[in-house]
Amino acid sequence: VKIAALAGGVGGARLCHGLYQVSPERLSVVVNTGDDFRLHGLTLCPDFDTVLYTLAGWADPVQGWGVAGDTWNCWNQLQKLGGESWFRLGDQDLATHLYRSQRLAEGARLTQICQELSVRAGLSCALLPMADQPVPTRLRLPRGWVEFQDYFVRAQHQEAVLECRYEGANVVPPTPEVVAALSAADRIVLAPSNPFLSLRPILSLQGMADVWRACPARRVAVSPMIGSQAVKGPLAALLQSHGHPVNSLGIAQLLWEWADVLIIDEGDRELAAPIEALGLKVELAPTLMKDAPDRRRLAEVALRA
Ligand code: GDP
Ligand code: CA
Prior knowledge:
The chain is an alpha/beta fold and 305 residues long. The chain is built from 13 helices and 14 strands.
């Protein structure tokens, strides 16, 4: 069985780690690049790096991003020098950004660079950035339009998001590798990533709707909402500000056209009927992934559903 998964950062990486445990060779992960940005003259791909580090077993288990046990010498020194220090970069993490930026300067495609990084990390699956050209997410807050990281990291996602825009998605297609992986898949898994900030940037790419319609795969989504809470991040507030119910029904309203099945938390049984009324099949499962076995179990549900 060939599997293609769509993922953002932490939530996406967790389920993809489960899929990787089940099927390390026949997995392709399509990763959101809407969060990518430039800092210190370097190109950062935060969601890709989170997926890379998680699958490689390098990720910090507590915060979910960055390299476990990383040191902060460079970042501390940068602070002393008065450099931009609102985005914390660990020393080992920095090596990834140096490598990527150097290769981009040499003219390599982002897809190629991502493949080099995943091979060097010892991974046997394909980690695919959704696009080679930038498609930056921009957000409209009460104070106006801002860059994604300005909202997410610099301001700690405390402000209301009134609108999301994926700049250039109407003209930038998914890469040929992404189209091939989706077209060849027997099963497409939409990981429990933030639909507004991680999945929609991928699904909004030019021509993606047609690629999607032509895919023979069964498409299974896993909800990132448990009860009325997101496991982490600003998803609950985003559902609220966009007028959706703040639970898995809200996720279903966002994804029903893109999925056949939605896996929701076993505690949310009462949402099954209203979600099925949207035309999605519902599967109940424990959806909180605290450790590697939890990830694997949920992945197995997603591959059976
Ligand atoms: P980000 O780039 O790190 O924000 O990554 P994602 O968009 O991939 O993930 C954020 C989403 O992951 C949040 O909405 C969380 O609710 C969800 N999430 C994180 N951990 C878990 C988990 O263990 N189970 C489920 N179901 N969702 C999770
Ligand atoms: Ca992200």
